[in-house]
Amino acid sequence: MKTLQDFNFKNKKAIIRVDFNVPLNDKFEVTDATRIQAAKSTIIKVLEDGGSCVLMSHLGRPKGKQEEFSLRHIVSEVINIIGCNVKFVDDCVGEKAEEAVTNLEAGEILLLENLRFYDEEKNGDVTFAEQLSKLGDVYVNDAFGTAHRAHASTTIIAQFFNDNKCFGNLLGREIESIDKVLNNSEKPVLAILGGAKVSSKITVIENILDKVDHLIIGGGMSFTFIKAQGGKIGSSICEDDKMELALDILKQAKEKGVEVHIPVDVVAADNFSNDANTQICDIDVIPDGWEGVDAGPKSRENFDVIVNKCKTILWNGPLGVFEMESFAAGTIALGHSIDKATKNGAFSLVGGGDSVAAVKQFGFADKVSYVSTGGGAMLEMLEGKDLPGIEAILK
What we know:
Strand order of the largest sheet: 3-4-2-1-5-6
Distance between the termini: 10 Å
Number of strands: 17
Radius of gyration: 23 Å
Strand content: 15-25%
């Protein structure tokens, strides 16, 4: 695996695919700069070697060239985080972009305009990728969030660089962290899968059953498992068409010696709102008209014991509707349990949009071993799929 450390960038221009698809408010200010921060060490390494950086990214889902999606809006935030000046050019291919790159000197950074202003980017157009390739001597992919897409800038461009291509520090860490869970883990290994739907996690569960010792199934998807086993779940979310599959997963787990843990009690609400009436009840006897919205106190205690006897922990998906303060206790308790286990030497990896949002919101981001920056890409790796953006570098 070729990484940034295999190259000296002195007098070289590195064209770096970063993931600066960051949220902006109505004043076009960056509201969460995590992804920019994540690319910093890669950019600094190139500059310290005596090279220059050409940064390319997408932002949002523009239809053609739309000013509201211009990367111009994030330049000041990139300057703040990287700590040096950043030039900007309002195109990403063609004469204007090529001229800006020609004028770029060692130690300087140039940010290109939004790649998705061109349909050719998402279509994986070879000619467009070739145009991008003219803007650098070495291609660095540091955008894990888009590594599962065969886009021009994430995959197709790599073919124009032969051996002059590598993973950036962020993408390298992502690959190593997921590999540590799936292939090089210290046992016991625990996977915690939450969220609303079993259907979105089926292939993940099937792929990791051979690699884990414990599996916690929480959140909305737990009710499909409970109902499949004959429990009464009131008005709780349930995928009736996946109940047979849920039973099959439990059977497979038993055959493989994997212990499956499902909440035993829940916080039930009579309404899907923060000020609903609530009660604690066993998960398999939720009254009609009530729905499970969070893991109950007994479940939190059970999960704490399991988490703290494991040495490798993967967390993907919350245990309740944590966006509502009244239903966040289960997810917060799990965060504390993983924090404690990590302090005692466990390796903990958190990934997936909702889990990442939760650990940031409740202050656990720096208390776990690694927080993944790519939701869809991480899920596909956990499913055992090859990611085109990663394979392109390995060729």
